[in-house]
Amino acid sequence: MNGWLLAATVVLGAGVGATLWGVATGPLRNRVVAQNLSTALACPGLLLLAQGYDRPAYVDLALVLALLGPVGTLVFARLLTEELAADPPGAWSLTWAAAGLGAAVVLALCVAEGPGRAMLKVLLTGALLIGGNIVASHALSGGIAGVRGG
C-alpha cells in the first residue's frame, strides 16, 4: 500500500462513511447537506485512487461525479423547497472544509502528474468539484433565486 491509497482509504472510509450515515439518519436539513458532502468527499477519494492504482480511468469517474453530484443537490433543493424553508440547512464550515480537501488533493495530484493532459483533467475535475459544491450549498441555504425564494 502506498501513500495515495492510504489517503484514499482515510478520505473514503471516514468522510464518505460519515456522510452516508448522515444521509440515512437525522433531520431533512442534515440529510441534504450530507448528500452534498458525500460528492465533495468521494470525488477526491477517486482521484487519490486513480493515482494510487495508476488508473487514469478513475479520473474520468471523478470528473463525471464532480459534474453530476452538485446537480443532484440542486434538484433536491428545488424539490424540497417547502420542507427546507422552515428549517434551512447551514453548513458553510463543512462546505469550505470539503473544498479545502478537494483543493489539497488536486494540488498534490498536479505536482505528482506534472504538466500535460492528465494535469488538465485533474484541474478541471477540481474546478467543477469545488465550484459545484459551493453553488449547491448556496442553493440549499436559500441563496439562489427561484430555488428557495432567495
Characterize the structure shown:
- There is one protein chain.
- The protein has one domain (3-140).
- The protein has 150 residues and is mainly α.
- It has 6 helices and no strands.
- The protein has helices spanning 3-24, 28-53, 57-79, 81-86, 92-113, 117-140.
Layout of helices and strands:
Blueprint: H1 3-24, H2 28-53, H3 57-79, H4 81-86, H5 92-113, H6 117-140
Helix pairs in contact: 1-2, 2-3, 2-5, 2-6, 3-6, 5-6
In short:
The chain is mainly α.
Q: How many domains make up the 3D coordinates?
A: 1
Instruction: Give me the oligomer status.
Output: single chain
Strand content: under 5%
Mean pLDDT score, rounded? 87
Distance between the termini: 48 Å
Task: State the low-pLDDT regions, or none.
Answer: none
Please supply descriptive tags for the structure shown above:
82% helix; elongated; mainly alpha
